[in-house]
Every structure is written in structure tokens, then in C-alpha cells.
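Researcher: Final request for today, and then I'll write up notes for the group meeting. The sequence and the SMILES for magnesium ion follow.
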Amino acid sequence: MLEIKNLHVKLEDEDKVILKGLSLTVPKGEVHAIMGPNGSGKSTLAYVLAGRDGYEVTDGDILWNGESILDMEPDERAAKGVFLAFQYPMEIPGVAGLTFLRTATNALRKKRGQDELTTPAFLKLVKEKGAELNIDIEMLKRPVNVGFSGGEKKRSEILQMALLEPTLCVLDETDSGLDIDALRVVSDGVNALRNKDRAMLVITHYQRLLNHIVPDKVHVLADGKIQKTGGKELALELEKSGYADYTGKAA
Amino acid sequence: MNVAVMKTKAEQGLAEQFEKVADKLPGSTAVKALRAAAFGKFGALGLPHRRIEEWKYTDLRVGIKDVLPPAVSDQTPVTSGDLIVALGPLAHIDAYRMTFVNGNFRQDLSDWDGATGFEISPFSNALTSDSQSSAIDPSVVTGPDGDATIALNTALMTDGAVVRVPEQASPDKPLLVVFIRAGRTAQLMTVRNVIEAGPRSKSTIIEAHVMLPGAVVDGQTNTLNEITVGEGAEIAHIKIAIDEGKSLHLANSNVALKADATYRGFQYTSGQAIARNQTHVTYLGEGGKLDLSGAFLARGSEHIDTTLVVDHAVPHCESRELFKGVLDDRGRGVFQGKIIVRPDAQKTDGKQMAQVLMLSPDTEFNSKPELEIYADDVVCGHGTTSAQLDDDLLFYCMSRGIPQAEARALLIESFIGEAMDKVEHEALRDALMQYARTWLTNDKS
Ligand SMILES: Nc1ncnc2c1ncn2[C@@H]1O[C@H](COP(=O)(O)OP(=O)(O)OP(=O)(O)O)[C@@H](O)[C@H]1O
Ligand SMILES: [Mg+2]
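Model: Predicted protein-magnesium ion complex:
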């Protein structure tokens, strides 16, 4: 279970406060969606979950399976099952996709006390998972994400997720930039990972994604806090009325 | 008449050493005269210092404090097992081997039995033979006239490899020429290699300067390669110099390219208190191609200088240079790249790039690219960049479970990798990457 308690976050180098007492609980086996206006702090929440530098938690805590993760390095969090699919996946020139995936997969297996995969076993796994996401192995021989289209980058994030087998999946606008078919492919990939041991937090601007990945709950994040929580019908409401109610409340 | 005055203690020390060993150095009377003349020239020039434009960033008057005795007929025992250890990742390369210990040829550690396509002999033989071998003809030195390190090399040259690749030959394996520093006595080694690739031949030569673990760390090396690439010939020359932070490594490579000749050079350098790789390339015929790249890694207070002069004297030639440096602690990198395009050298195509990665705020990178273009129909370009390791990329890697040290290594390797990819021989490329990996994991910071 993911428990975010009264989380206050500011930028490390500036006085800007972004999250102002955010609380949220996602039990294992559930998928929760977070929607909210631009700049409301959704990506910030995702980065703080993954452990990115540059943010300072001034109050509150984040517990994953009862354990605070705030003092852990990003790689330790990954070992505990945390995975963030980035809103803007990064390009790593000079590092072949396959090398990157194998290094990450084996680093995590080692930390989780599993045997490292042999190269043939790893390649077989990548081919399998890649095929499900329409990712050709040839694409993975190129440097990580370099020259990939926006949609290809998003699919490659989901492939990483499928290979690394996280238990807490945070998807930051994975649907943005996907065409209709890719949206289905990616959603199928995400749905295939849904199970009773996994918790998922899906950040999106579009109700349409939630037709494919049906959430257990929808939260509205505005002005650094969860302003409202509801069922999947809340997303439909937002589609009609926008965020005026919530940002208004904040003003 | 102006009699040159020796100025620094080191210059004085060198004069004393030269006097002491002049009689013991190999060579006929003609060679002795050549040495004396060269040392006279060195005496007039003195050690290069910062007021000499080409040596602005690498001041040997400041850098060389102690003069070491020249290694002459060194007898330090080294076994073939030691050789394997000293070679590290290079030991796995299937190659003919020519080995020098403290600058002196060692037959017992060499093996080129059955080598087809290489004619190999020690330079000391050429020095002592009566016939005026072209290997010792001073006019063979095509590099910058008036360079003190070259004059010093001629004065003290002791041994080295003379390698000829006959016309159209294409040896089945590379030749690995190894220079090992061994023993507990710090010495000055002066090496002269002469490499001649015959017309339309194709060969690979690896020149490795390594040390035996536990050997004295503060040795000095002065090495000069005279390389001629014949018409239509292609040669890959991979030079490796690895030390442990205290040594001095002065290396000159003078490359002459005949028509349609190709020289693929790679220089891997790490661990010297001061290293200078000075490469001078001259095109003698049309259609010549130069593909020179390298990687240098410096930490502590190490200083690694790469200086290139590419002289396009004839039309229709191409030059490509790509150098990558990794600097940590107070490590300093110098890159000077001069491309000269002479008035006749139309259709010259020259491109140069040097990039460094600075892992600490106290590193320094001096770069001086120079284009001297006297022809109008040419394509030339150069660039230098220096950057730090990208924190965002580091986070991205770590968020996928890769520990910080491994993530750093991955990013640094990928940075150097772009230059290493220029080495076509796969096992050799892997060995170079292995050296870099070892360097990265030796990080004590
Ligand atoms: N590193 C940073 N430096 C400066 N400002 C930042 C930084 N990170 C976040 N911010 C600011 O904090 C606020 C929240 O940003 P965040 O990216 O979390 O919003 P978001 O909800 O993900 O928006 P979007 O829907 O546009 O993706 C914005 O005003 C943003 O400009
Ligand atoms: Mg965002």
C-alpha cells in the first residue's frame, strides 16, 4: 500500500512551494488516477516518489508497504518496486537500449536476491515483452530513446516497466502524444500488469485513457493538494466542467 | 657566436646524463655524430616552456624537476608471466608480439614466428649496423623542425621497433609492440619506432606503454614514431599509454601519407603526471585519409596534452579527428589541433572535434583549435565542448535500479565509447573499454 501523508514539497533552490499537504492512499491491487490543471504539481509528486534531487520535503511522509522511502536513493526505491514512467523520457546518447535494459534488469534482480539473467534469456524476454508493445528489437539496438518519436518513447517506458516488474507503477502522462492505436497498445500493456500485488498511480489530462485503464479512484490535484476524490465518473465530470471549481476554491 | 646556456637544473642534469651515457648508447660513429648534433640542438632550444606558443599549456621547464638516468642495456628480469600481467586486457589479443623492457628489446619475451606480412627488427640493430639504414637517417624525421623533444629523442634513442609491411601484404594478425616499465629504478626510456607500410598493404599495429604492477611509478618516456603509409596502403595504429600518476610521457608520431593512403590512429592515455601526444601528419599525395581519435583520462593532478598538426599540402585529402577526455579531481586536459590547408590543397575535407567530461569542479581543460586555410575550395570545421555529467540522466538510470556508481560508469563509458568505436578491431576495442572501466572503478573519490 502507498500512503502519502500530508506531503509538503518545495523547490530546493527556490522559495517556491509546490505541494501543500497532499494526502493519498493507494492500496495494492488498485489503480488510481490523478488529474489536475497544468502546473498543479502532478509531475512533482511523481518525481518525489521516484527520489529526484532538487525537491525538498518540508513536512509529511511517503510510506510504501509501511516503510518510509524518503531517505532512500532512487535505485533503492526501484529495488523496493517503485517505477516512474516519465512524462518526458530522457535520451541517453551512446548507451544502446539493450545494454541499458540489461544493466537495469540485472541490477534490480541482484538487489531483489534473484539470479542475473543470461544474455540469451534476457534477449528472449525483451523480444516477448517488446512484441506485445510493438517494439522491434532493432529499435533497442539504438541509443536509449535517441531519435525516437514521442509515441515510441512512451512505449519504450512501458517496456521498461514490463521488464523491471515494479509493484508501484507511477505513469506520468503516458498517454500524451500517443495515437489511437498506440493508446490501445500501451493500455493493454498496462492492464496486463494489473494484479493484486501492484498499485498504480496514473497521471493524465484525458478521460479517454481511463476508458482503457479503468481506475478504482480518481483524484483531483490542484493548488498542491488533493481537492476531491471520486470514482471513474469524476473524470467525466471534469471533462465537462474543467477545473474552475477547484482552482477557484484555491484562490 | 652565441653559445647556448643551459638554464634549468633539469637541462643541466640532462647534459650531464648525456655525457655519461653517450659512449654506451648503441650506434656507429655516424650515429654518435648524429646524437651529438641533436643534443647540441636540444641544448640550444632547452626544455619547451610556456612562452613557446606550441607549449603554452604544457611547460616542461616547470614539469620536469628531476632528470632520470637513461636506461641503457637494461637487464631487469621480467618473465612471460609478468608480461601477461602487465598487458592486462591486451593479453587476450591474438597478435604477434615484440617486447621491450625499460626501453630495451627482449627477444625472450617476443614472438613473431611465422609472421607473414610483417618484417620486424629492433631499432638498436639498425643503429649498430654499418649500412646506412634509412631508419637512422635524420632526414627521415618529418615532424616539426626545432622541437626539443624530438632533438632529445635523437640524442638518446636506444631501441624500438622497425616494422615494414611489404607491398600488398595483409598480415593475418596485428603486431603488438609492448614497452614495459619494470624494476625499482626510475629511468628515462628513449624509444624510436620506424613503421613503413608498403603500397596497398593493410595492417594493424598496437603500441602499448604499460608498467609491471609494483614497478617504479615515476619513469620517463620519450618516444618517436616515424610512420610512412605507402600508396593505397592502410594502417591502423593504436597507441596505449597507461601509468599510475607519477610518470612523464612525451610521445611524437610523425605520419606521412602517400597518395590514397589511410592512417587510422587511436591514442588511449591515462595516469601520467604529464603526458603529451604530439602528432604531425603530412599528406604527400592526393586521396590521403586520416582518421585519428583518442581518449584521455586524468585525475589527481595529472596533465594530458594532445597536440595535432594536420598539414594538407596536396588536394583531395580528408582528415577526421575525434578526441574525448574525462577529467576528475584537479586533472587537466589540453587539446591543440591545427589544420593547415596549403594554397594547392583544394577540395580538402577536414573535421576536428574534442570533447571533455569534467567530473569535478577543479578540473581544467585548455583547448586551442586552429584552422590555417590558404585554399578557397575546402570544407573544414572544428569544435570543442566541455560538460559535466548530466544529473538528469543519472537520475533516469538510477530510477531504473542502476546504482549510482554503475550509472556514472555507464554514462562515462558511453561518452568515451563514441571515440573508441573508431577502433575497428573488436577485441582491441573491448580491451580499451576494459582499461577505461578499470580506470573508472579505481576512482577513490
Ligand atoms: N525544477 C523546477 N524548477 C522550477 N520550477 C519548477 C521545477 N519543478 C516544478 N516547477 C514548477 O512547479 C510547478 C508544478 O510543476 P509540475 O511539473 O509538477 O506540474 P504538472 O502538474 O505536472 O503540470 P503539467 O500538467 O503541465 O505536466 C510548476 O509551476 C512548475 O513550473
Ligand atoms: Mg507534469
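Model: Chain A is about 35% helix and 30% strand. Chain A touches chain B through 29 residues (CB under 8 Å).
Researcher: Thanks, that's everything.
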